[in-house]
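Subject: Protein record for review, amino acid sequence with backbone structure tokens
How to read it: Take the token row as a discrete description of the fold.
Enclosed: The protein record, placed directly beneath this head.
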Amino acid sequence: EIFTIFSNRVTNGGKTTLAEKLKNMLPNCDIISQDDFFKPESEVETDERGFKLYDVLDALYMDEMVTSIHNWMKSPASSGVETQEPRNTCDNLKNVYILIVEGFLLYNYEPLNELWNRRYFLTLPYEECKKRRSTRVYQPPDTPGYFDGHVWPMYLKYKNELEENASIQVDYLDGTKSQEELLSYVYSDIIEELNKLRE
């Protein structure tokens, strides 16, 4: 049985850390990260202001990502997932395989929309997001004005599109909460969903 989770987020919202911690707690769990599918810098478009347009679907090899997810779903046991004894998980979940897909532009991509059992979206207020972004080193580095001119407007655009799409159910998570609080909530929610699937 396969259970897929998608974690979308604002930049620096803490979703990678959350995904890694969940992987260690859940049975037969693996992660596919959207960041692994970025095109090389030379293939990413530049706008009239000189900003590299990384926060759009065209900056990613989305077909490759979809293929990777489908390949995992066809054969999760041979995907290199380390089967370990997860903590506090019921025996009846041992033959469940869980895939966490984490990224920043997944709910807005139609070919993936039917795959998710659960969708989470980490949000952050502008000031906190900008502060966290400024502490990270990117390759290529952010150009002056990049956050305000491209990153934040694209986050708002995609979040608004998502909120307007009534057919997609999303659990919005407050990224300012502690990692422990977020982890506890998402873990409990997933276990509850898994148990419902098994009934």
In short: Helices lie at 15-25, 62-74, 126-134, 146-164, 179-198. The longest strand covers residues 2-9. Residues 28 and 83 are 5 Å apart (CA to CA).
